[in-house]
Every structure is written in C-alpha cells, then in structure tokens.
Automatic annotation (TrEMBL):
(S)-2,3,4,5-tetrahydrodipicolinate binds at residues 167, 176-177. GO terms for molecular function: 4-hydroxy-tetrahydrodipicolinate reductase. Its EC number is 1.17.1.8. Pathway: Amino-acid biosynthesis; L-lysine biosynthesis via DAP pathway; (S)-tetrahydrodipicolinate from L-aspartate: step 4/4. Belongs to the DapB family. It is an enzyme of class 1 (oxidoreductase). This is 4-hydroxy-tetrahydrodipicolinate reductase. Gene3D superfamilies: Dihydrodipicolinate Reductase, domain 2, NAD(P)-binding Rossmann-like Domain. Homotetramer. The gene is dapB. It comes from Daeguia caeni.
Amino acid sequence: MSGEANNAAGEMNLVVVGAGGRMGQALIRAIQAIDGARLAGAIEREGSPHLGRDAGEIAGLGALGITITDDPLPVFAKAHGVLDFTSPGASVYFAGLAAQARIVHVIGTTGCSPEDEAQIRAAARHAVIVKSGNMSLGVNLLSVLVEKAAKALGPEDFDIEILEMHHKHKVDAPSGTALLLGEAAARGRNINLSEHSVRVRDGYTGPREDGTIGFATLRGGSVIGDHSVILAGTGETITLSHQAQDRAIFARGAVKAALWAHGRKPGLYSMRDVLGLDS
Ligand SMILES: NC(=O)C1=CN([C@@H]2O[C@H](COP(=O)(O)OP(=O)(O)OC[C@H]3O[C@@H](n4cnc5c(N)ncnc54)[C@H](OP(=O)(O)O)[C@@H]3O)[C@@H](O)[C@H]2O)C=CC1
Ligand SMILES: O=C(O)C1=N[C@H](C(=O)O)C[C@H](O)C1
C-alpha cells in the first residue's frame, strides 16, 4: 500500500507493533496528536496480556476502536507504514513483512547484531526503512555537533568517552544512542568505530590507547535516557550532552519519519536524512 495515496481523509495509516510497550503507548499518543497520521492497527506478540484490548485504552486515551491483535498480515495489508520499537528479532521479522507489503517501516529498536542489520539492509532493497538508535531532534542535532567537535579536536590532544544512563529495564548496552554518537565521533575522525571502540574496562587495563572511543554504561531507576560525549584534553574538558525527559520526543520523531518516508524510493534512511541535518 506504500505507493498508494493516503486514506480517504488524506492521512497516512500507521500500525504500531509492540503496542503495549513503553514506546508503543507513546507512539499511539503521538499518532493521535499529529495531523496527517492515523492509527490503523496495533500488534502485540502471541500470548500478550494486551491482546483484545483497545489500543487507545492502554495508551490512556480512551477507546479508539483499534483492537490489539497478534496477526500482522491483514493489518499491514491495509496500512501505509509501521512504527516498530520492539526487539531485534521482531524488527527483522517485521522488516520482511513490511517489505512484502511495500509499506514504510520506521525502526527504533536497538541492540541489533551485525546479522540483524544485514537482514534489515536486505529488506530495504524493497521497502522504505527509516532506522535510528534515537528518533529525537535533540540527539540527532547533538550527533552533528559531536562529529564537528571530533574533527576539530584531534586524537593527539583529546580523548573521546561516551557515557549513558537508562532505566533498569533496558536490556541492551551500550545504548543505540551511545553507538550513534560514537559513529558520529568516528566519522569526524575518519576512523572505523568498530576498530577503535573500547566497550568495557575492568581490572588492570593499562593506560588509555590514543585514538580510541570509550563507552560507559549506567542502569537504574526510571531514567528515560541521558547521554554525554566527553572530549577530554590536557587541562580542559568539553562535554556535549542530552537528557530525554519524555518518551514523546522519540515517538514524535518516529511519526515524523513515517510521514517523510511515505512515497520515497526504497532504501535505508536515518533520522539525519529525515531532519535534513546533513544538507
Ligand atoms: N530509537 C529510539 O528513539 C528509541 C528506541 N527505543 C528502543 O525501543 C525498543 C523498545 O523499548 P521499550 O518500549 O522501552 O520496551 P518495552 O519492552 O516496553 O516494549 C517492547 C514491546 O514490544 C513487544 N514485542 C516484542 N517482541 C514482539 C513481537 N515479536 N511481536 C509484537 N510485539 C513484540 C513487547 O512485548 P513483551 O513485553 O510481551 O515482550 C513489548 O510490548 C528498545 O530496543 C529500545 O532501546 C526506545 C526508546 C527510544
Ligand atoms: O531503551 C530505551 O529506553 C531507549 N533506548 C534508545 C537507546 O538505546 O539509545 C533511545 C533512548 O535513549 C531510550
């Protein structure tokens, strides 16, 4: 349905997968609040306690007439796009279904393995996919600033460390955002992140190796998402940071990404593409 025009009311029909989750509920609220978007379906996994409930009710909006189901095929067939903040295995599965249905797939899921990423790239040969470890305007702008700072402050003078803290339920580390910011720093330095990152330090580590990008992870309480990129020189330190105060920032970004992607040619796009931050 992706190539087709919007629905009779001129809106884009969107499906939320993982509708009962923290982000699923925020996405339902964002769709209701944004002109041009309409909630057309809500999916949860087989056996979920949310099945059969109204999507609006679980998001605190009152009934919207959309029942949560575990059968994505008929729902995707009537949609223009899918918003997906679930788990890596589920996102790979939904990427295949969205590609078959030729609908837009917005993926916020983090913690994907290189194999998962390869399967998502393959699906993007047929579908328009927007994927980002962070859908907020603030973090994507921060990534541009980090890239510039890393380019201006070379590895002989400044060490780069990335610190993140999230709520105690988060299952992947480092966060998708920390990796996105690490990629931005690596791009600024013209290096490959996977060859220069230090993801864990423990015990007698020896001195820091010049040119590496270090990651540190904190977990606790209900923290939505705090990130700092620290550029540490001799005698001075620069810290570029972002604190998320409401999951609505990610949900609004995801709906904006779907509206932007509708009607574009197949490919894998980033939030920097959506927000025009590279032009
Ligand atoms: N890119 C961004 O801007 C952001 C990304 N995220 C990422 O989004 C993901 C979800 O985060 P969050 O909402 O906090 O997590 P939650 O665990 O609250 O929500 C995930 C939801 O997806 C459901 N789910 C899992 N597998 C399937 C499946 N196969 N079919 C249907 N539903 C499924 C889960 O069901 P069940 O509970 O039964 O397993 C759950 O309801 C994480 O990877 C997180 O890092 C989060 C915020 C912002
Ligand atoms: O799991 C979360 O909650 C979040 N995940 C994303 C990440 O891994 O960076 C984005 C945000 O920080 C919240």
